[in-house]
Amino acid sequence: MKLEELIAAARGEVEVDLLIEGADVVNTLSGEVYRSDVAICEGTVVGFDCESAKKVLDFPGMVLAPGFIDGHVHLESAMVTVPEYARAVVPRGTTTVVADPHEIANVLGAEGIRYILDSSRLSPLSVFVMLPSCVPATHLETSGACLDATALSEIIDEEGVIGIAEVMNYPGVIFRDPSVLAKMGLAGERRIDGHWPRIDGHCPLLSGRDLAAYVAAGIGSDHECTSLEEAREKLRLGMRIMIREGTAAKNLDDLLPLVNEVNSRRFLFVSDDRHPSDILREGHIDSMVKRAVGAGLDPIVAIQIASLNAAEYFGLRDLGAIAPGRRADIVVLDDLDNLGVQRVLKDGANVAEGGRLLTPIEEAPRPRSSSMNVGRIGPGSFDIKADGNLVRAIGVIPNQIITRSLLTRPKVEGGKVVADLDRDLLEMAVVERHNGTGNVGLGLVNGFGLARGAIATSVAHDSHNIAAVGTNPAEIYRAVSEVRNMGGGLVVVDGGEVEASLPLPIAGLLSDRSMDEVAELIEEVVGAARALGSSLEDPFMTLSFLCLPVIPELKLTDRGLVDVNRFDFVSLFVGEDEEDGARLMARGSGPGR
């Protein structure tokens, strides 16, 4: 809309496109709720009355709020394309997301980022992209691409790009890694729409001087707080706290008590990683608003956190409020008690009603690059040769992406380490799938509960190699082979037979089916994994994070076992020089304790 036309429409000199009558307006700027009309012209709010309107909508007794904004999301975690994602979240009031496409970027590089951007232009969901800062996430794994500062500089000026995404390599910041600092420096070299791009953070459990150094470097947010104390320290140092409610990591209940009327503008709601079934069953940002209000938070404050706070933090000056000059992204709520989404307007158009999207959506062309290039492997690739009396094992913590580093005695048969089902000690493998290197990382994990069979997935943060957990090498080999043959996906095998699977043919991360279909297939694979004995809420989501070598304590990549606190590889077997000191720990820190 031209400036002259906007001014004329606001002054009532021209007929507006739409006038909304009869509703109360949540003013996130003044913190009030009051009865007011809303005038819209060419997708923009121009004022609160008009001389004439081409169309009038009457919403008596309802409440208008600005469209909800997800401040940090990996769209790929929903395992559907952007249009399908929009079909699910827009009817729930989410009109904008700030996406970090580092999942698909770690597989396809810049091609993957552009695929997300191109897909978003075909849907009624505004998708702003933060450029992945960690492709690869670390030097401890093999990814499908490498995006250095030079490569990112070629993308940062593209429409829809607004900053640098979560800097997971916090040791790289603290110890001044030139490549990490060069990427961060891009945010200080360019202004996007008159705004300095933001740099998002990712620093679980970081504290004290190291945290101060991280914040001093210009990093403005964190979504990895798991305790009130951690969030309070980061808030005091100036970080925006992203309250996350994903599938594997849920922090809303823990962090909400920190929010008060004085500091509430420093918080954002984010979903981060949320599976389709959770979106369809529980909701999206709307569910966080409802739960926050149900826990006692003022509805206006909850809506500010869900809209204006993210808009202001990211410099999205035309979003976050129903006010003149702002984009007409509006959620029509039944009231401030139930907070049920009745309709959604995007750029002034009625795009969703009664929980259903009204507008058709086109799909963008798929990426051309192959995403499944596994080297030569066989059943023997997954044998673990016994080489000591003590081993390090990954200890799963339910509903968290952090793990424990456990020490225990392995079960050995025929000179090989085997799964110990009595102690829930299973074999784990990570198979490189991008460059055909043949890399296979092997380890042990406690907490999955499988009594037989194996599960495998090509969704394995952040490099997305093939990760598998199983009761023996043959089952693991069968599961990995099936993922490779599908072109990516999730699979459960038992006795060498495929019990359930979800193909993900787009980069090994995304399905070409509807979210409803994907949710059904996820339920099938999760159900099949539970039938094998797993008690985890979502074994595949848990498995996907066991390869992430930036989240403490112990993780496994295609290149080996990683002690995240040391940020370096460690052997599976404890060496003789460590054994005497470790033996006591083994008794008190073994699996199941």
From TrEMBL:
Keywords: Hydrolase, Manganese
Molecular function (Gene Ontology), one example: adenine deaminase activity
Keyword RNA-binding on entry: no
Domain Amidohydrolase-related intervals: 64-348
Adenine deaminase C-terminal domain ranges (all copies): 400-567
InterPro entries, A to Z: Adenine_deam, Adenine_deam_C, Amidohydro-rel, Metal-dep_hydrolase_composite, Metal_Hydrolase
GO biological process, one term: adenine catabolic process
The keyword Ribonucleoprotein is annotated on this UniProt entry: no
Protein name, entry field: Adenine deaminase
Native organism: Methanothrix harundinacea
Lineage, broadest ranks: Archaea, Methanobacteriati, Methanobacteriota, Stenosarchaea group, Methanomicrobia
